Amino acid sequence: MMCGLPNSGKTTKASDLAAQTGATLIRLDNYTHLYLEGYKPRNILDLAIADISAALECGEDVIYDSVNATAYERGLVVEAVENKGCSIVCIYMNTPVEVCCERDNTVWAAAYAQRFEMPTETEGFEVIISNDGVSTE
Questions:
Q1: Residues forming beta bridges with residue 89, ordered by sequence position
Q2: SS3 assignment, position 116
Q3: How far apart are CA 91 and CA 75, in angstroms?
Q4: d(CA 15, CA 18)
Q5: What is the full per-residue pLDDT of the chain (137 aa) written as tens digits?
Q6: pTM score > 0.85 for this model?
Q7: What strands, in cross-sheet order, belong to the sheet with 89-93?
C-alpha cells in the first residue's frame, strides 16, 4: 500500500516496484473517471478494494497506489485483505508538503495535507518510510 500526499512520488515508486516484482499495480486514480458517472468516493474505493481482493485471490501480489490519507481509509483496505492470509506493507512517501505543492498546479497536495494522518504500525501493517520523492529535480 502506497501512502503520501499528491505529487509525493507514490506512482513513480509503485510503478518501479511493480516492474521489479511483477506485482499487479492498482491505482485509485484509474477509477476517478467514475466521478463523472455519479459514483461517490466511497463507492470508487469499494471498487478498487474489490479489484485488490480479486487479484489476491488469484495469488497475485498487489501494489495499491493511492493517497491513503487517513487511518480510516487505510483500515478499509486492511480489513478487506486481512483474511486473505497476506501481509501488508505501507510505503509512506515522506515528501514535504512544500515540495508536493511546488510540483502541483492544483490545490490537491495542500488540501490533503490538512487531513493527512501519518501511517503507524498499529494500523495492522509494516510501515516503510521512503525519501525517494523528496528531490525537487
A1: 126
A2: coil
A3: 15
A4: 5
A5: 999 999 999 999 999 999 999 999 999 999 887 877 777 777 889 999 999 999 999 999 999 999 999 999 999 999 988 888 889 999 999 999 999 998 877 788 889 999 999 999 999 999 999 998 776 55
A6: yes
A7: 2-3, 89-93, 126-130
The C-alpha cell that represents 137 in the structure block: 529535480
**Burial of 66 (C-beta count, 10 Å sphere; 0-12/13-18/19+):** buried
**For residue 30, which amino acid is it?**
N
Cell output for 75 = 483500515
Distance CA 115, CA 70 (A): 7
Contact status, residue 112 vs residue 6, Cβ threshold 8 Å: yes
Q: 97 - beta bridge partners?
A: none
3-state secondary structure of 3: strand
CA pair distance 51, 30, nearest whole angstrom:
12
